[in-house]
Amino acid sequence: MSLFNKVKDLLQANVMDMVNKSEDPEKMLNLYVDRAMEEVRNFHIQVNRAVADKLQLEERLEGLTKEIELRATQATLAVQQGKDDLARTALSYKKQAETSRLDYESQLVEQTKAVEDLQDNLRILTEKLEKAKVERNNLVMRQRRAQTMKSANESISGLSTHDPMADIDRMKDRVQRMEAEAKASRTMVSTNTIEDQFADLEKSKANLEVEDELAKLKAELKVGLGK
Q1: C-beta of residue 58 within 8 angstroms of C-beta of residue 107
Q2: CB < 8 Å & 24+ apart, contacts of 145-153
Q3: Separation between Cα atoms, residue 29 and residue 17, nearest integer Å
Q4: Are 67 and 93 in contact (CB under 8 A)?
Q5: ∠ at Cα 83 (77, 89), nearest 5°?
Q6: How is domain 3-162 classified at the CATH fold level?
Q7: CA 126, 129, 132 angle in degrees (round to 5)?
Q8: Which of 17, 18, 64, 158 is paired with 141 by a 20 to 30 Å CA distance?
Q9: Mind listing the pLDDT tens digit for each residue in 94-138?
Q10: Distance between CA atoms of residues 74 and 76, nearest Å
Q11: Where are the strands (E) in 13-134, listed by range?
């Protein structure tokens, strides 16, 4: 499996599944993208080498063309001066250069096609890398958002075992109970005051009877002494 396929698989993974794993999704994404960047850099080096080989073939072809022209000129000059052996040697070199040029021309055609293919592949890989970077950034944001939501849900779940609202409700009930007791005690105070008033009346009545009895007793005693 190529590195770009690994990146593709990772980018298509479910975010929550990644969050629930022990591995750090953001770290993994950065690692895969970094490796993809390294692969693109290495591929770019290969493309540059292929381009350099193509340039080298073109330079050799240019050199062979010049050599062929030179050997032709030399052969002509040798013939003009009646030096057939020298002319044959020049023509032999010219023939060898022509053969080499045909070979290099064939290689140049193949190398040109190879360079074009490599450059196309490099363009595709570069586009995939840029897309992977964008997807990486989007997925990292989704992962962070999912992690935040997960942490928040866990916090809320933890509060369910000791809900502060339950404590507040209990205190509310207690306050309401105290308010009811205070109201009842106020009613009792008012009722006790009335009862006390009646009790005072009864007490006053009893005191009057005692005073009447005392006066009556004194009167009887006074009458007895007068006899």
Answers
A1: no
A2: 146/15, 146/16, 146/19, 147/19, 150/16, 150/19
A3: 14
A4: yes
A5: 80
A6: Helix Hairpins (1.10.287)
A7: 155
A8: 158
A9: 999 999 999 999 999 999 999 999 999 999 999 999 998 888 888
A10: 5
A11: none
